Amino acid sequence: MFISIAYMHYVRIEKEKIKEVAVAYENAQLQLYNALDIEFAKDLQDWDAEIDKQTLEVRFKSPDVLFGLGSTELKPKFKLILDDFFPRYLKVLDNYQEHITEVRIEGHTSTDWTGTTNPDIAYFNNMALSQGRTRAVLQYVYDIKNIATHQQWVKSKFAAVGYSSAHPILDKTGKEDPNRSRRVTFKVVTNAELQIRKIIQE
């Protein structure tokens, strides 16, 4: 009986700890979203970009601005956008470093690939393309002159991830929207899940 009561007390304490972490995560996520929104609200339309409140993604949506067809080379306009965006992005993230596990630069493509109708060939060609593009973006922003003091943090936290066509954007009928599927995102991954795992393991 005593063991049962003690165990129930332990479980309740653990649940309370997890709840505290979850609440802290929600608060930090909301604060970070609000900070990003305040910083970039006036620019999003010009950049054809958006900020996702749930995933903390800054999503650049215009493929014609980002890269040439089948190319990993950044277009001049995208470089200008990144020159403006990235130093300000780091400045916002500075205030939330304790909550950040990783920042992913994610590349996404459509399922199409010129010259083939084989979906497997298209998938792996697009995988190489999306990976090359995110590496190109990361290398470009890393070399921006006025972020030199942040380079060590960028190396420790940023990752370039290419997803090929694994996460397409669908239209209202459930079909792939090829144009919207071609995008680059900057996504903040918080440490809330890690903190919860630590509590469970303890």
From TrEMBL:
Keywords: Membrane. Residues 54-192 form the OmpA-like domain. InterPro entries: Bact_OuterMem_StrucFunc (IPR050330), OmpA-like (IPR006665), OmpA-like_sf (IPR036737), ZorB-like_t2 (IPR049653). SUPFAM superfamilies: OmpA-like. Signal peptide: none annotated. One of its GO terms (cellular component) is membrane. It holds the Pfam family OmpA. NCBIfam families: anti-phage_ZorB2. This is OmpA-like domain-containing protein. It comes from Escherichia coli EC1870.
